[in-house]
Amino acid sequence: PRVLRDAIDCELKHSNKKYLFTSGHEGFLTGASCNLKTVPYKRSSNKFNVLYHFIIAQLYTFFVLSFYLIKAKLKNKEAHVVVNTILPFGAGLAGKFFATKVVWYVHELAVDPKPLDMLLKAVLRFAADEVLFVSHYVKAKYQNLSCKKTVILNGLRGDFPSKVDIDPEQKFNYKTISVSYTHLRAHETGRNL
Question: Comparing 15 with 103, which gets the higher pLDDT?
Fold first, then answer.
């Protein structure tokens, strides 16, 4: 989400022409320089509730995004859809049917359960015009794509902490990360971060 936020914010003069479809949860995308469209999505500890809300979110994204893309097409405007992670397949399908180009940014190797993983990867193969990968390792796991494939390594911002202490037990047992760090700026240390 931080890389996506940086990409959104890099061109402020066209912020009124950019739309971000995301959940209403606070995070890196909060306050991005674009038109925010909140997708109805609720978190839950129950897997069936998660699946239900996920499907509702995909249907909502597909129909609302399709509306905006059709409107742009009727005005003879190009519209590009950038899908961040393989999960929002509704956005990918809307883009395939109504956008000029669909770029997918892939971070994941796999998603549980396996049938959902297979569906998401099938939609990716069908809808993507270009796929951006976060690493060569991730790219190697998606060999059956016929579209353009590019690796863009996530760089570290200048304000990223240079020393991070993560509690591995908490990370894996509780699926949360507690971070304590020493903040050093690149110009203070003489290093390129």
Answer: 103
Could you please report the per-residue DSSP string of 108-145? -S--SSHHHHHHHHHHHHHH-SEEEES-HHHHHT-TT-
Q: Any alpha helices (H) in 44-101, and if so which ranges?
A: 47-74, 89-98
pLDDT digits (tens, 9 = 90+) for 62-76: 999 999 999 999 999
Residue 23 exposed, middle or buried by CB count within 10 Å (0-12, 13-18, 19+): middle
Give 115's contacts (C-beta < 8 A, 6+ positions apart): none
Q: How far, in Å, CA of 83 to CA of 20, rounded? A: 10
Q: What is the pTM of this model?
A: 0.76
Give the phi and the psi of residue 122 in degrees, each rounded to 5.
-65, -45
Distance CA 182, CA 191 (A): 15
C-alpha 74/C-alpha 78 separation (Å) is 10
Cα–Cα distance measured from residue 106 to residue 4, given in angstroms and rounded to the nearest whole number: 12
pLDDT value, residue 121: 94
pLDDT of residue 187 exceeding 60: no
Cβ pair 87, 111 in contact under 8 A: yes
